[in-house]
Amino acid sequence: MSSDQATLAIIGGSGFYDFFGDDATTVEVETPFGAPSAPITIGVVEGRSVAFLPRHGRKHEYSPHTVPYRANMWALRSLGVRRVFGPCAVGSLRADWGPGTVAVPDQLVDRTSGRDQTFFDAGGVHVSFADPYCEELRTAAIASAGTELTLKDHGTMVVVQGPRFSTRAESRWFAGLGWELVNMTGHPEAVLARELEMCYSAIALVTDLDAGVESGEGVSAVNVFAEFERNLVPFKALVRRAVAAVEGDQTCDKCAVHAGTGVQLPFELP
Asked: Is 210 annotated as catalytic?
């Protein structure tokens, strides 16, 4: 594999740059959907070639609703990526899932609006998305839990439009429906990965109790960033172990959603 190719990717924050040593390379990629959030860094993690893409850009210049999600996923696929971990910060809708908890969600609810959420604007292509996260990657992440952070092996993550945080009424509504986590970037990232036949799993770090949780005081960006930074070292260690635990380099059978459908895609996958 060339130095500008990788089969596994991490889409995360700038705190993940030091995953790589001095021999990491940076690749500029253009896509039919414009440039990704930033140039992609490729290095070696646990003996595996890994691509890293900062979701919000190198200087956090993209808000959740302006992230170029389609360009990001297309760029990764074009570099050979077939498996993606999406570490992210989330709010908790449960008082017993406090800051410092790590959850590996198994379900997603979309409450965003106006985002480009498909590559298939034509062609009558409909992908299976009942189980939005790759079970093989979820298993690797769950098996990688250490003792530093409390791990939850499930959870429904509701993705809101942002960039504002939820009102107390919205938060109580989400919690009342039985959902555990709230986030701003998990959609359309997960479904775009599925459309491109890439395995995808979120790994969510709880940074706050959402506004409607009884013991919560409302959410502030300052506190969210501070809590994320406080847990960044053990969180990165967990993600590193998850990378090492992944078996195989290719898309799993369940995430290869176009195989056997008989549908002619309107374009060739990169």
From this structure: yes
